[in-house]
């Protein structure tokens, strides 16, 4: 009997597709294919996933859609019926329930609490709570139905982010800036908590809601868009502190109410690695946050929901340490891109400087040695990550010891704001030597402190508050990346590398052609792609 096949499709921002066939998963965000950040849509990603899984539409048993805002109408088909898909094979799922599946099913837990917090789900939902087990995920609470969306944790954080001059999808910038400010200079409370119900003080969304609150409370917010000034930094610190307090209270209340330490957390708010670390430290929760906790994980959650409908069992598909749900490219496909062959894709969308390439039998060692010499490299290996963090499949790597490397990355390559930190990737066995870390952190979704005794050796990856968004690397999960870090440790005595996403202003690279285009368009010193090492030859 053939394995059941479920396809998940996300209609909202961060659109994409996931295909589950038996125990195998292929998933990708639409932005990785159309090269437009936070893109909606699913057509290109559906074709990619079906092709990668060697399937066509007729092989799929169930298609599951989700969206943000008003729920999809009964009988919604997304247009798939035009291609011969029977409407009986097409269903939709609640946005927050999809998040819950993406968190619980990947956690490996037999049972757990699941907390969802984001800017918006369906019908003004911003917080939802579930009790999850092998047979069912049961919603047990959330924000009250008549409370405005503006009062949710994610919506309030988004409002401050907008006031600072950032896009609503750029809350990570607010989180980074917060370490430079002082929350106590503002003092006002952003949230009222009533058990498991969050009552945010804002009544309108975005920066206009924050302005209303400030006028009513007599607060000085400074000038809108002025994240450069001290008031902007204090605002960031304020919303970060208030968010942490609200989340700690919610998790503590959930754990006490249901006498459960295992907690899964998803939704856009769960991407706040600083808050996640505070939750873990202050509540004692055994906390799992999936790598694609934001809406990038909706398609995967939809497919997992679909598998439950097909099999009658909640899928248990732990992928601890793994987020490489994209397809793997062959050496032949990489070589086509290096030869600039038209079949390789869009490598020519930027001017192409002269470069050379060579085959290496041990690219991990070559890459580590280049990094130890102060070079900044692109690293392309295996299938691409689904989530927002590069975890050693589509990464830019550098020496974590050198502050000048951090500055070069911001100015020459990533073109980011100066206050945003870079993350360290460390061998799992050495993590506790360098960081105040309990357990693992394979997805860069926790921010423990760097140990005082080694901060000078990790100057490029230690944030101003002494924290670091750590990735622990297991040799069984990422063997080539682990070999690279281990080799770097042998050469330098520091088994840690600086790891940031392989992109500039575009989404993270997906294909060999994307990697080559970004390498040529930026000031990267070298590109290690599969077994090939690429270097520019011109001035």
From TrEMBL:
Against CDD domains, the record matches this protein to: ASKHA_NBD_NodU_CmcH-like_N
InterPro entries found in the cross-reference section: ATPase_NBD, Carbam_trans_C, Carbam_trans_C_sf, Carbtransf_dom, NodU/CmcH_Carbamoyltrnsfr
Under the heading Pfam families, the entry gives: Carbam_trans_C, Carbam_trans_N
Q: Where is the Carbamoyltransferase C-terminal domain?
A: 368-536
Every copy of the Carbamoyltransferase domain together lies at 89-304
What Gene3D superfamilies does UniProt report for this protein, alphabetically?
Answer: 3.30.420.40, Carbamoyltransferase, C-terminal domain
| Sequence similarity | Belongs to the NodU/CmcH family.
Output this protein's name: Carbamoyltransferase C-terminal domain-containing protein
Biological source species: Dactylosporangium salmoneum
């Amino acid at each position: 009997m053939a394995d059941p096949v479920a396809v998940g499709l996300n209609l909202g921002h961060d659109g994409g597709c996931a295909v589950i066939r038996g125990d195998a998963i292929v998933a990708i965000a639409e932005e990785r294919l159309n090269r437009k950040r936070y893109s909606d849509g699913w057509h290109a990603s559906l074709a990619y996933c079906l092709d990668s899984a060697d399937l066509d539409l007729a092989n799929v048993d169930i298609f599951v859609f989700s969206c943000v805002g008003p729920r999809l109408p009964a009988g919604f088909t997304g247009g798939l019926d035009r291609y011969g898909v029977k409407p009986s094979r097409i269903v939709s799922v609640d946005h927050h329930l999809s998040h819950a599946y993406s968190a619980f099913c990947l956690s490996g837990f037999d049972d757990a609490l699941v907390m969802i917090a984001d800017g918006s789900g369906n019908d003004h939902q911003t917080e939802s709570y579930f009790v999850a087990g092998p047979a069912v995920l049961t919603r047990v609470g959330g924000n009250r139905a008549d409370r405005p969306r503006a009062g949710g944790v994610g919506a309030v954080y988004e409002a401050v982010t907008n006031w600072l001059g950032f896009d609503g999808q750029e809350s990570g910038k607010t989180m980074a800036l917060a370490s430079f400010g002082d929350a106590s200079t503002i003092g006002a409370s952003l949230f009222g908590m009533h058990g498991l119900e969050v009552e945010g003080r804002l009544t309108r969304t975005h920066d206009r809601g924050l302005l209303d609150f400030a006028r009513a409370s007599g607060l000085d917010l400074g000038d809108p868009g002025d994240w450069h000034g001290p008031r902007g930094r204090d605002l960031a610190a304020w919303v970060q502190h208030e968010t942490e307090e609200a989340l700690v209270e919610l998790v503590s209340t959930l754990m006490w109410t249901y006498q459960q330490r295992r907690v899964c957390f998803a939704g856009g708010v769960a991407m706040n690695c600083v808050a996640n670390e505070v939750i873990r430290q202050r509540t004692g929760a055994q906390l799992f946050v999936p790598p694609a906790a934001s809406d990038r994980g909706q398609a995967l959650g939809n497919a997992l929901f679909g598998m439950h409908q097909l099999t009658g069992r909640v899928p248990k598909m732990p992928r601890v340490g793994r987020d490489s749900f994209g397809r793997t490219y062959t050496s032949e496909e990489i070589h086509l891109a290096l030869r600039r062959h038209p079949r390789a894709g869009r490598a020519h969308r930027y001017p192409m400087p002269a470069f050379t390439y060579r085959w290496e039998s041990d690219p991990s060692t070559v890459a580590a040695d280049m990094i130890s010499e102060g070079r900044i490299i692109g690293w392309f290996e295996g299938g691409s990550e689904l989530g927002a963090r590069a975890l050693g499949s589509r990464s830019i790597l550098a020496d974590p010891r050198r502050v000048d490397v951090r500055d070069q990355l911001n100015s020459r390559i990533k073109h980011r704001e100066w206050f945003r930190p870079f993350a360290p990737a460390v061998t799992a066995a050495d993590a506790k030597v360098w960081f105040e870390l309990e357990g693992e952190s394979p997805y860069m979704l926790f921010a423990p402190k760097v140990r005082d005794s080694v901060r000078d050796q990790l100057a490029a990856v230690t944030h101003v508050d002494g924290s670091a968004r750590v990735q622990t690397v297991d040799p069984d999960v990422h063997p080539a990346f682990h070999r690279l870090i281990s080799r770097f440790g042998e050469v330098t005595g520091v088994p840690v590398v600086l790891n940031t996403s392989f992109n500039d202003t575009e989404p993270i690279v997906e294909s060999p052609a994307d990697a080559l285009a970004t390498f040529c368009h930026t000031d990267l010193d070298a590109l290690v792609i599969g077994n090939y090492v690429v270097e520019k030859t011109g001035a």
